[in-house]
Structures are given as C-alpha cells and as structure tokens.
Amino acid sequence: MRAESSKSINLFLAIVLSAADEEITGRKALLNESVLGNIFFTLLAGHETAGCTKGFVLVMLAIYPEYQRRVQKQFDEQFNAHPMEKGFQALQKGYVGAVQKEVLYLYNPASFIMRKVVETVDLVDCHGKSHRVPAGTLALINNPGAARNPNVWKRPEIPQARRTALSNSPALYFNPDRWLETDDRPDDVKNEVPTWQAFGAGGRACPGRMFAQVEMTAMMATLFKNPSLELVVVESTLREAKGMQI
Questions:
Q1: pLDDT at 2 (0 to 100)
Q2: Looking at residue 66, what is its pLDDT?
Q3: Residues whose CB is less than 8 angstroms from the CB of residue 199 and which lie 6 or more positions away in sequence, other chains included
Q4: What are the average pLDDT values for consecutive 10-residue runs of the chain, which has 246 residues?
Q5: Structure pTM?
Q6: Which pLDDT belongs to residue 13?
Q7: What pLDDT shows up at residue 60?
Q8: CA-CA distances (angstroms) from residue 96 to 109, 195, 220?
Q9: Per-residue DSSP letters for 177-216?
Q10: 10 Å Cβ neighbour count for 155?
Q11: How far apart are CA 110 and CA 106, in angstroms?
C-alpha cells in the first residue's frame, strides 16, 4: 500500500488513511474508534443544515416566482446544451448558485462559529466603538448578525408599513442578484468586508461544502426542471401566523 498524492485525496479517503500505519503516512495513526466517529460525523453533520437550507430555498422561490423563473431558465439553457452531470460548475456561477448563497446569507443554519483568539486584537463594532479582545478568549462569531448589518449590506427599499406588517422578515430583502459574477463576495458590500462565510473559512471551514452544494443543486434541478412551485396559504394559517416572521 502507498499513500495517495495530496491532490487525489478526498475527505473520506483522508479519514481512512488517518488510521494507516505511521510508516505509510508519516503520521501517528488514529484509533479505529476515532476514525469511525469522524466518518459518522462527516455523513450526518450536514443533515439538518442542508435540509434547513433546502427548505428555505423552496420557500423563497415560491414567494418570489420571478426568481424561480430565472432558475428554471438556467436549468433549461444548461441541460439543453450539456449533459446534466457536467453542469454543476456553470449552475453554481449562475442564478442557481446565487439563490443558494442568498438563502444562506439570510437564513444561515450555522448561527455561530466558535473560535479561540490566538493573540490580543482590537475590534471595532458596528457602532464604531473599539473593543480589546484578549488572547485566549473564546469568541462566538454571529453569522446572521454580520450578514444582516444594514450599515454594510445594501437592502431593497421596502415601505415602512410593509416592513411592519411582515415583522421586518428577512425574506423581504431576498436579492440573489448580488451574487452574480462574483467569487463568494457580493457586489454591494464595502471592500473591507470578508468574503461569504456561510461554510466558515480557513483551516476549519466546513469540509462538506461541495457535497452540500451538489445536493442542493440536484434537488433544485429535480424540482424545477419541469414543475413550478406555488405558495398556497389557507386562511386559517394566515390567522394563526399573524405577526410571525418567515
């Protein structure tokens, strides 16, 4: 047996190789229990987050049929010219990927990212106040709060009466166009704002990002290639949900 080159190792192979003899990998082997635990975690970690995101994709496209038609148009153009299995990258760079990013921007299922501060740093909050964070501090990064900061991110102009009637729901500001022709950075934010971090960033970024994106794209292709989705709300539900946010 030989160790695979780093370019050809995927996530599951890396986990399996972590249990190999040290003389093969050059690293201390993990216990079998640790390997099985990592495989289990990798398979199930994105179950609720991906499911939640797909649910909001369906709700947003039902609320905004004009965006749903643009998604369907991209599927038609892509699959009429290319085999379905070869269209993922093009779909991600187009309106399908833009819808996914906007849903994760508004309804990120990973509400907080936990990080340990490695060295003392001064941070300025959204009100311009400076705070010194000592080294060793356990920090919780508020993803939804950062993504919805109106001082940084542009929002469509919504009349105050409509915002009040809909409890200022994040769905009011759904705008997939901000993600077109970008590389994980929306086109309407200030330059100092980090790139899109729905899956985290750096060495601790979510290893299942590509799997989740493929899964969401396959779901959207299956549901929107031919059918359309319409939002139907019965009168009793409207009465029961009065004042609730989407």
A1: 40
A2: 94
A3: 110, 205, 206, 209, 212
A4: 47 61 64 72 73 92 94 90 74 91 87 87 86 92 77 79 82 88 55 64 75 89 88 77 54
A5: 0.73
A6: 63
A7: 94
A8: 19, 19, 8
A9: GGGTT-SSS-TTS-TTSPPP-TT--GGGS-TTHHHHHHHH
A10: 12
A11: 11
Extract the tokens encoding 46. 């994105």
Residue showing tokens 């990120």:
108
